[in-house]
Amino acid sequence: MAGLRMAVPGLFDLSPRTGVLDIKKTPKFFASSEPQNSPRSCKIEEIFTDDHTGFLAAPICSLLSSSLTKLYLWADENDEVARFSKEQEDALQLLSSLKELAFGSFRKLQCLPAGLHRISSLKTLRIGYCQAFRSLPKDSLPSSLQDLQIWHCRALKSLPEDGLPSSLRKNMH
């Protein structure tokens, strides 16, 4: 699997064989891509980015819907997002091949994006260093989820056992 460390002008200029994309400290990288001249799909399997605002857009997520299996969204030190917009939540749901999703260092994020339960391929969810993260909404996680990892989320006091997928509940006892 090929890796790439931010040396390209835009997402749509990447080779269709790129496996891993790591984009950090490059605001608006995804916003600068031109989807009108893009291929119909892309073979990127993993993305690590702190540009969640640019990445969580329908044209980007549509392009990656069949190949992206791992997405790691990290906030930069100036990030103030408390919740994701409806457009971002809808774009995230387009990632139909997603198996692993992580949210990290969102200091003010209070809740997960709505509609995660619609990503039926999701197996692993990680939430780390999200200090304001308060709760998992009841019935908000996909039934396919097998691994839930939460660490350093100080505002989270408990998990709604009856709201967790049965695949996770059986491991709690």
What does this structure look like?
The protein has 173 residues and is α/β, with parallel strands linked by helices. The chain is built from four helices and seven strands; from the N terminus they run βββααβαβββα. It has a seven-stranded parallel sheet, with no helix packed on it. The radius of gyration is 16 Å and the shape is globular.
List keywords for this structure.
single chain, 173 residues, alpha/beta, seven-stranded parallel β-sheet, 13% helix, disordered N terminus
Q: Counting H and I runs of at least 4 residues, what is the number of helices?
A: 4
Q: Look at the structure and give the mean pLDDT.
A: 81
* Residue share in helix: 10-25%
> How is the biggest beta sheet arranged?
7 strands, parallel
Number of strands: 7
Task: Give the SSE order as H and E letters.
Answer: EEEHHEHEEEH
> What would you call the structural class?
alpha/beta
Radius of gyration: 16 Å
In short:
The chain is of the alpha/beta class and 173 residues long. The protein has helices spanning 52-55, 58-64, 86-92, 166-169, and strands spanning 2-5, 18-23, 46-49, 70-74, 100-104, 124-128, 147-151. The protein has a seven-stranded parallel β-sheet with strand order 1-2-3-4-5-6-7, with no helix packed on it.
List the helices and strands and how they pair.
Blueprint: E1 2-5, E2 18-23, E3 46-49, H1 52-55, H2 58-64, E4 70-74, H3 86-92, E5 100-104, E6 124-128, E7 147-151, H4 166-169
Parallel strand pairs: 1-2, 2-3, 3-4, 4-5, 5-6, 6-7
Helix pairs in contact: 2-3
